[in-house]
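Researcher: Go.
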Amino acid sequence: MRSKHVSVTGKVKFFNETKGYLFGAVGIGLQLPSSALVQSEQGLPWDVVADASIDGGHYVPLVGRRADGLHVISWGAIQLMTEDFLAQYCDEALAYVSQECLLDQKSPEGFAYDDLISDLAALA
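Model: Structure:
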């Protein structure tokens, strides 16, 4: 069995959909408010609720963006999140670059590995 590893990780100053598309995987660190737990239990998107207290930190991988919002994985399930929630509670974002998904040293989207590494360094 071949071992799997991430070639490079980099902390990015802010997150947007371009980084998610460019790097293929973006992890988001959140200061999760108590309201998010209630919203998850009710099947609602995470959205900003005034005066919600912070329960603690939470790391989620961003897996997509659609018309209904940002899609993250939290507690083993897809969770929707609004742009406002991301802007309010995101305190860090990490982008990943792995050589395992490359074909001819290019990402599935056609970006050259060396360019991705340079882009990641520029975003740090």
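Model: The chain has four helices and six strands.
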